[in-house]
Amino acid sequence: MADFAKLSEAMGNLEEDEVISILRGVMADGGSEAPQAMEACQKGMDIVGTNFESGDYFVSDLIFAGDLMKQAVEILKDALITGDAGGTKTQMIICTVKDDLHDIGKNIVKAMLEAGGFDVIDLGIDVPPEKIIDEVKKTGVRIVALAGVLTLAIESMKMTVEALKAAGLRDSVKVIIGGAPVTEGYCKIVGADAWTINPQIAVQTCKSWAAEA
Ligand code: B12
């Protein structure tokens, strides 16, 4: 078994060579421990966040951490992303909400949804409610996934759900929210239908909605 505590620590210390070497080790057997490795990398990102809050790390370190996390996803992705992409694809929207530029988690969820058989329209980052409403009207999608990592993303998610209501679309569109700060309590505040920080659960939830439609 790989040393996941060591992986989190190396990630938190931004030790690129060590991180890559542990991840290559994880993939040596085809990646049976890839999900645990992904979790360990996220714990490492929490360490980065804590060091940033305490003033030991700077924005440049966040940028470096983001690049390192992208490399990690690249190495692990074939083992993480498995699915049944055949058959008719249900179209859906994903984006990072207004004022939030973080997209690493969103991109992981998007890739897993695609592997799970969805045709995912990715509207990108910092996406205002109006753009999402326009796309829902244009495409008629019935599932919208909203990502956000900043605490203030919760407010943008709430504004998006309110905008769906105001446009008369709320009853025909299911909304799932996710990202590090998202909780059951925030889900209620936002008025979303579901929340999770686990991409596999996101895929299952969207699949159950697609089956209902
Ligand atoms: C890398 C990083 C950056 C990079 C992002 C690069 C990129 N392309 O995304 C850059 C340098 C751009 C950045 C900028 C900033 N950042 Co930053 N950043 C981080 C860091 C270290 C890692 C984020 C990450 O990628 N995590 C790994 C991914 C895989 O995890 P995840 O996003 O949670 O996703 C998983 C799940 O949540 C879920 N999921 C994700 N999305 C979705 C969506 C749906 C629908 C579902 C169902 C599930 C789901 O699945 C994913 C896989 O498991 C975090 C610290 C942390 N603990 O996360 C800080 C952090 C998020 N940043 C923070 C801050 C303050 C900033 C800045 C304001 C810094 C500054 N002064 O400029 C700016 C804000 C820019 C903006 N307006 O958005 C704070 C936020 C504080 C807060 N409470 O709001 C954090 C928490 C650091 C900290 N502790 O202070 N950042």
UniProtKB/TrEMBL annotation:
| Record bears the keyword ATP-binding | no
Full protein name: Methionine synthase
| Pfam families (alphabetical) | B12-binding (PF02310), B12-binding_2 (PF02607)
Supply the alphabetized keyword list: Cobalt, Metal-binding
Database matches in InterPro entries = Cbl-bd_cap, Cobalamin-bd, Cobalamin-bd_sf, Met_Synthase/Corrinoid, Meth_synthase_dom
Kindly indicate whether the keyword Metal-binding belongs to this entry.
yes
Domain called B12-binding: residue spans: 89-213
Domain B12-binding N-terminal stretches? 1-88
Provenance organism: Sporomusa silvacetica DSM 10669
- Top-rank taxon, per record: Bacteria
